[in-house]
Amino acid sequence: MNGTREKRAPAQGETPTAAPQRTDVPSPAVSGERDCTQEIPQAQQNPAGMQRTGATVQQDSRGPERTGLLEAPPAARGLSAEETLLHLGHAPQTQEAPPAAGGKKRRLPRNLIVQLVLLLLFPITFGLVALAKRNPQVVEDVYSRVIYPILVQPISLLFGMIPFSFAELGLAILLVGGIYVLVRMVRNVVHTVKAKGRVCLLLTDYLTRIGALAAVVLFLFNALYGFNYYRQRLSQSLGIRTFQYTASTISDVCETIIAEANAAREATGLEDDEPFSLPYSRDDLDRELMAAYENLAAYNEVFAGHYGRPKPVFSSKPWTYTFVMGIYIPFTGEANYNTNIPDCEQPYTILHEMAHQRGIAREEEADFAAYLACRSSDSSYLKYSGALEALLEFLPTVYRLDNDRYEQIVSQLSEGVQRDILAVQDFWDSYRTGLADVSSSINNLYLQSNGQDLGVASYSMSVQLIMDYYTSLELSQN
Q: Which of 3, 205, 449, 457 is the most buried (most CB within 10 A)?
C-alpha cells in the first residue's frame, strides 16, 4: 500500500496501551515468375478427325467439329492462357520466390512493438532507483524539492475538487475490471486449448500485455512518489541531530509528553468522564489541518506546498477490520482516511497521510511530521491528538525498557487521558480479526520493497525522532 497508516498490534510482552492485431502484408513480387499471359497456340487438328464423346474416342469424317457438350477449343475463342487453364479445370500454379532485394519485409504488429517498448520501463525504473539510493542529496534537491511538487500538486488539487475519494472509486473499478479481464483470459485459453490452437502464443501475448502494464504502473509510482523513499532523512533536513538514549532519558521525555496531553485535553473543555469527540464539521477540520501544516511550513519549507483536501473513504468500516487507518494514493494525490476510527486518533492520522502528500514517504518520518503539525496547531483538539498518539508509542517502549518507572509514569496520566487510551484499546480489540494480520503482512512487504528494512516496525521508530527533537530543542535553549 502506498503510504498506508495502520494500527500496529502490540508485540509480545508489550503493554496493551500501546491478441495483438496483424497488419496485412502484401505478397512480395515474384522475380522470374512464369509468364502466363501468352496465348497457347491453337490445337492442331486431328487429321484423323477424332471426336471425344464422354470417355470414348471415335473417328468422325466430319472433321474437327465438336458436337453435344463439347465446344470449340478455348484458344479458338480467343481466351487467354489463364482462362484456358481454368476452363480445362486446372488452376495456374506459381511458386513464390524469396523477396527480391529491396522488397517489403514482414513487420511486427504495431501494438506488439509498443508493448516491447513499454517493457523497457522496467530496466529504466530499476536503474533510476539504484541511482537514487546512492544519491539521497540529489534526490532531495532535484526530485523532492523541485520535480515532485511540480508533478503532484496540480494532480492533487485537481482531484481535490471532487467531493469524494476518486482513488477509492478507481480501486473498486479496477478490482471489478481486473476480475472480468481475468475471467475472459481464462476462457480464451480454455477455448484455444479445445480448438488445439497456439496456446503458448496466446499466453505469451497476455504476459507481454500484463508486463507492459506493470512496467507503466511501476514507473509512474516512482515518478509520482516512490523516489521520496530515497531522499535524505527528515531529521537532517530539519537540522536535528541523532543521539543514543538510556531508558531513563526515554522515560523523562515520556513524562513531558504526558504533561502536554493532560494540558491539551483540559484545554478542550471536556470533563474527565466525558468521551473525547471532535467539535468540527468536515470543512472546519480540513481548515484546522491545513493551518497546522502552514504553521509548520513557517518553521521549515520541507512541509510547504498546496495540495488537495484529505478525503474520507466510504468503505471505512471494512477498512477498520484490516486495521488500516489511512492511505495515500500517489496516482491521484489524495490523502485518504478512515472515518470509523476514534475521534482522538483522526487528526493525527489525517496529518500523517498529508505528510505523505507532501513527499515525506518514510512511515516514521510521516508520524513525526504529524506530531509536529499537531504540536504547532492552534487547536487544542489537534494538540491532544498528537500527544495521545505519541504516548501510544512511548508507553510500550517505557514498559519494555524501564519497567520500574512504568507504573509511576502511568499514574501521571489524567483520568480523561486514561479513559481515552482504554477506549482506543477497546475499539481496536473489537475489530481484531485475521484480516489485520494479512493487511499488516502486505504493508510490511510494500515497505520493505521501498527501502524500509524494518517494514511495519518502522512506525515505532517515531520514538527516536521525537527523542531527538526534544533533545535538540533542549540543547538549543541552553
A: 3
301 burial type by CB count under 10 A (0-12 exposed, 13-18 middle, 19+ buried): exposed
What is the CA angle 321-326-332, rounded to 5?
Answer: 125
Length of the chain: 478
Give pLDDT tens digits for 180-237.
999 999 999 999 888 887 888 889 889 999 999 999 999 999 999 999 999 999 999 9
Q: Dihedral, CA atoms, 264, 268, 272, 277, nearest 10 degrees?
A: -110
Query: CA-to-CA distance for 181 and 183, rounded, in angstroms?
Result: 5
Helix 380-401 to helix 346-357 angle (10° resolution) is 90
* Angle, vertex CA 315, rays to CA 314 and CA 318, nearest 5: 160
**Eight-class DSSP state of 336:** E
Computed on alpha carbons and rounded to an integer, the radius of gyration of the chain in Å comes to 38
The residue among 458, 462, 446, 448 whose CA lies nearest residue 328 is 446
- Residue keyed to cell 496483424: 22
The three three-digit cell numbers of residue 4, written as one number:
498506508
Helix (H) or strand (E) segment spanning residue 223: helix 199-224
Report the sign of the C-alpha dihedral through residues 191, 195, 200, 206, in that order: negative
Tell which residue, 79, 72, 77, 8, has the closest CA to residue 38. Answer: 79
DSSP SS3 for 271: coil
Phi, psi (degrees; rounded to nearest 5) at 6: -125, 155
- Cβ pair 366, 3 in contact under 8 A: yes
Q: What is the pLDDT of residues 254-302, one digit of tens each?
A: 999 999 999 999 999 999 999 999 999 999 999 999 999 999 999 899 9
Task: For residues 414 and 384, give the distance between their C-alpha atoms in angstroms, rounded to a whole number.
Answer: 13
What residues does 471 pair with on adjacent strands? Answer: none
